[in-house]
Design a protein that fits this description.
Elements: E1 6-9, H1 14-25, E2 31-35, E3 43-46, E4 49-52, E5 54-55, H2 58-61, E6 68-71, H3 75-87, E7 91-94, H4 110-113, E8 123-125, H5 131-145, E9 147-156, H6 163-170, H7 191-204, E10 211-217, E11 224-232, H8 238-246, E12 251-253, H9 260-263, E13 269-276, E14 283-290, H10 294-315
Parallel strand pairs: 1-2, 1-6, 2-5, 6-7, 7-8, 9-10, 12-13
Antiparallel strand pairs: 3-4, 9-11, 11-14, 13-14
Length: 316
């Protein structure tokens, strides 16, 4: 099978650059970089080679010369441009929230519900950067003991808000960094909290699962952390939970608190402090950390793409 023709849309952003690096590591060489008109003509790196950035226009993306498009340009941009890429014959893996909860669009974490990716009609959605590691951890617990309730507090790094947020943090002392959340607020809940709840339910296929999230930004450059409390239908000891998580794909159990620094530039979801929660019947508590640009975004999308490519190879 010939090398797939891949377009990275949003190639100059934080996630786009990580996407290019991971594609190069995996040996993909027929790659084009797209971004806004402001970035068109600049260069980005692909495995030591410079790619000239093309403007992401409807005409360019619908030309029919791309097999796969990896989008990381934000919700409004995806709503505008993704349909053009699909019309041109490309399969799109979109990292924005534009299509995550849309009927008929699979929302996929390959280790959790990878088979759903094969049900696409041109678009597969990549989940939120906190939903991905959370579902990697919850799925084996659900399989073993059935989830009754989940509470989660997320501590999300500046990189989750993009390059400008990272540059702002780099120029400030951490204790002076503005910790106000950058998500829409409806007076009760941040948009990020709603995403985390609804996306987790969709991926786990548990539409009524009670999930109570609290999301904040922290003055950390890269890496999201989450404190998680779960209550299960069946008893599950901390030792049994640890054993389950040690066997879970893309999960690495560590001693003590996993930190964003430990998780940075790794492909695993790090989990630690697995212990009983004495305030809940069948309650467990744990702490996780994940590189939000790698497994929390770019890598998960590439893993989805590779599922689709493997299916195409089998069909050829």
């Amino acid at each position: 099978m010939p090398s797939p023709r891949i377009g990275v849309v949003g190639a100059t952003g934080a996630v786009g650059k990580v996407t290019l690096g991971l594609l190069a590591e995996r040996g993909y060489d027929d790659v084009r970089a797209f971004a806004s008109a402001r970035s068109a003509g600049s260069r980005v790196e692909l495995g030591g080679e410079a790619l000239v950035v093309e403007e992401a226009t409807p005409e360019a993306l619908s030309a029919g010369d791309l097999d796969l498009c990896l989008f990381s340009i934000g919700t409004s941009g995806s709503r505008e441009l993704v349909p053009h890429a699909v019309r041109g014959g490309a399969i799109v893996v979109d990292k924005s929230s534009a299509y995550r909860l849309a009927d008929g669009v699979p929302l996929v974490v390959p280790e959790v519900n990878g088979a759903r990716a094969l049900e696409h009609a041109g678009i597969v959605a990549n989940p939120n950067c906190c939903t991905i590691p959370l579902t990697c951890v919850l799925e084996p617990l659900e399989e073993a003991a059935r989830l009754r309730r989940v509470r989660v507090a997320t501590y999300q790094s500046a990189s989750g808000a993009g390059v400008e947020s990272m540059e702002r943090l780099a120029g400030e002392r951490p204790d002076e960094h503005d910790l106000r959340a950058d998500w829409d607020f409806d007076g009760v809940e941040y948009e990020e909290e709603e995403k985390l709840r609804l996306e987790t339910r969709k991926i786990l296929e548990l539409p009524e699962l009670p999930i109570s999230p609290t999301c904040v930004r922290v003055p950390v450059m890269v890496g999201h952390a989450e404190a998680v409390w779960v209550e299960t239908e069946q008893p599950l000891s901390p030792d049994d939970a640890r054993s389950l998580l040690e066997s879970a794909p893309s999960v690495r159990v560590v001693d003590g608190f996993p930190s964003p620094g430990q998780a940075a530039q790794t492909e695993d979801v790090l989990v630690g402090r697995i212990r009983r929660d004495p305030t809940e019947e069948n309650g467990l508590a744990l702490f996780l950390a994940c590189d939000n640009l790698v497994k929390g975004a770019a890598l998960n999308a590439i893993q989805i793409a590779e599922l689709l490519l493997s299916r195409a190879a089998l069909a050829a």
